Prior knowledge:
With 235 residues, the protein is an alpha+beta fold. The protein has helices spanning 2-16, 40-43, 48-54, 58-62, 68-84, 177-187, 192-199, 203-217, 222-231, and strands spanning 22-27, 32-36, 92-103, 112-125, 128-138, 145-151, 156-161, 166-171.
Amino acid sequence: MKESVFSLKQSFEQYASMVFGSVYVLDVLQRTICSVKADELFLCGFSTEEVTQLGYDFYARIIYVEDQPLWEDIYKCMLQYLYEHKDEQEKIDFFSCTFRLQRLISFVPHPLLQMVFHRMKPVWVDHELRYLICSLESSTYKKVGNLQLHYKNESNYNEFNFVTNRWTQTKKDILTEREKVILMLAQQGKNTIEMSDILCKGHCTIRNQIKALFSKLEIHTMQGAIEVARNFHMI
């Protein structure tokens, strides 16, 4: 077991050094945060030492108070699924959800809220769930929750309904080559006029294609479209 823990810590340090954003490892059995990257998004003003000392209780310090009961439900639902579906260890890629962080700012009388997209990748040791490798990034999502289970190399994902308390399978949208190119150009900071010049299409044509893309992804901004497409590995 010590060798496995050392191997995970070593791999985490190598991985975290290459990743832009917040990454940490949650020990499921001990309910502790055993490794955390020194990134302000997740730390919210705390030190890495404080995070590892607080362990699971750290979530109560940084998650917006109204979202904390939902986070508890998300965590329980995820663990229950993993314990009940051990046969899917090789298929599961990661879980994802959204919630709001609360940031205490010296010159603001109330906490500032920041929506984040949270990924949780399970790690088994000797066929038993032991760790969750987690990452956070700022998100354009408007609603909290959005608990989803993503599989490796599959076009489907599972989504949890907190009203019916059931998982439902949903098929990922498939982007056309042109839609992928539009998102790629948008990531480069190109506007619709520049896109029309590059793609040799009329400005109105590009605008209509972007409108159709937004409708397909159920989003209203280009930043949101890029985020959704990236989260679902469409680009």
